[in-house]
Amino acid sequence: MVKNWFSLKSKIKMNRKAYLQFSFAWLFAIIVGAFILFLAIFFSAKLINTEQTIQDAKTGKEIGILLNPLEIGFESGKSNSITFPVETRIYNKCNNNGEFGRQIIQVSQKSFNKWSETEIDVGFSNKYIFSNGFAEGKKFYVFSKPFEFPFKIADLIYITSASEKYCFVNPPEEIEKELLFLDQENLIVKNCSEDDVKVCFSGTCDIRINLNTKQVIKEESSVSFNDDALMYAAIFSDENVYECHVKRLMKRLENLAILYNEKAIFLSLKGCNSNLDLLTLINLAQDFDNSQELNLISEIAEEIQEQNNLGECKLW
């Protein structure tokens, strides 16, 4: 009897030990499996984020390429559109470093109901894109106008989301004709709805334009312009983007004026004098600080343009 009892007790101990070993093996397998699953999910997420970052950068480059026709023969003042398969944000950034500064585009796209995050900037030294800090949607409208001051400086490009509508209230006849010619669905003349961004040339609106003082006023901020090209730029972009690109345009003006001045000197040696005050234009462009100074430079630019048009020895 005692012998049987000890035998039974020994079997219980052995079973318990086997059970503990079995439980530990399963627990170890579960922990290792969970860790492997975590690593798989982690690296998959990393890979997806990396692929999305690459895609965002490629999209930014593609936008730059798609905008090239606007600068090389595309009909001025004609609207075009860019459509993406998913919701997209185009971030418009600008810096003034270097000789011409840089236009910077950053793209974020919606994936799995979440916006991708990327620090990759796509930069261009020869583009001047005017938009809000970021434009959001699947479809975007694009058009361009040349900026001449007094000679052609660059083509200005305007990007707006199709989901953001601008309604122009009683615009001057020339501007109304241009807007109708653009035939851009998000640019409306007169018949405004409640959700439209209202642009008016008198009275109180979201965006007010004073053609006498050449100012575009939004809430508590205002910027200056000198022609229709910069007027549209001020309407469709925020103050920081606008002022930065205007400074870049003045840098380009300075460099082009230096080239034209060298051309004038060369032609004068051949007996053809242009007598244009390009040095004053160069100095004003060098010292340019903000858009409020455009009026002063405009006066000089207009005088130079008139003299060039009337002269026998035209520089441009």
What would you note in describing this structure?
By secondary structure, the protein is an alpha/beta fold. It has a domain at 245-310. It contains six helices and 13 strands. The strands form two sheets. Strands 1, 2, 3, 4, 5, 6 and 7 form a seven-stranded mixed β-sheet that branches. A six-stranded mixed β-sheet has the order 9-8-10-11-12-13, with helices on one face. α2 links the parallel β8 and β9. α4 packs antiparallel against α5 (278-286). The relative contact order is 0.10.
List the secondary-structure elements in sequence, H or E.
HEEEEEEEEHEEEEEHHHH
Mean of pLDDT? 82
Overall shape: globular
* Integer-rounded radius of gyration: 32 Å
User: What structural class do helix, strand and pairing data support?
Assistant: alpha/beta
The CA-CA distance between the termini, in Å, is: 122 Å
Number of strands: 13
Helix fraction by DSSP (H/I, runs of at least 4): 40-55%
Largest beta-sheet characterization: 7 strands, mixed
Strand content: 25-35%
Name the poorly predicted regions. 38-57
State the helix count: 6
Q: What would you say about this model in short?
A:
Helix content is 45%, strand content 26%. It has 316 residues and is of the alpha/beta class. Helix 4 (239-269) runs antiparallel to helix 5 and helix 5 (278-286) packs antiparallel against helix 6.
